[in-house]
Design the sequence.
């Protein structure tokens, strides 16, 4: 997430071209996340970069949040996720999705849901953006997470994996 304006479509009267003020600054931060499609549980944490070190911190934090539970964490093949330096906690099993297939990862729908209310908005600082994102997350319900992430093919894969 960053201060660069996310643009999106808007409905206008015929012949009216919508305009929106746009900013192009390079300041940003990353939100790492994991969701559980069956229960709607979601784990989100902010980091300054997308790299192996921050990803390892997220894995360690997520492992603690899980306690004695296990999780299959579906990740893309970004270098931060595939680095040989990554030490996967015992209670997190990585599932690497095929290249160029973000639609297979249920959390991608959460990112879409998060970004929608941010479109065509200007934020004067990263803190203002963080505050708005926190507001969106605070309004997020378990039912919403379930509804956007519980595709049949995902649920079938989870049930299949749980049977082993």
Sequence:
């Amino acid at each position: 997430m960053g201060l660069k304006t996310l643009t999106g479509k808007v409905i206008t009267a015929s012949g009216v071209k919508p305009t929106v003020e746009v900013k192009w600054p390079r300041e940003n931060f990353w939100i790492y996340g994991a969701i559980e499609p069956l229960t709607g549980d979601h784990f989100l944490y902010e980091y300054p970069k997308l790299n192996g070190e921050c990803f390892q911190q997220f894995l360690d934090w997520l492992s603690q949040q899980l306690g004695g539970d296990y999780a299959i964490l579906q990740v893309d093949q970004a270098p931060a996720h595939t680095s040989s330096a990554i030490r996967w906690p015992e209670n997190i099993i990585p599932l690497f999705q095929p290249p160029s297939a973000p639609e297979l990862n249920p959390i991608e729908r959460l990112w879409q849901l998060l970004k929608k209310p941010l479109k065509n908005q200007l934020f004067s600082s990263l803190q203002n953006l963080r505050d708005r994102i926190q507001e969106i997350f605070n309004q997020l319900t378990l039912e919403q997470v379930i509804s956007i992430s519980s595709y049949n093919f995902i649920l079938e894969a989870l049930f299949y994996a749980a049977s082993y």
Remarks:
- The chain is about 35% helix and 15% strand.
- The mean pLDDT is 85.
- The beta strands are 30-35, 42-47, 71-75, 92-96.
- Residues 30-162 form a domain with the Nucleotidyltransferase; domain 5 fold (CATH 3.30.420.10).
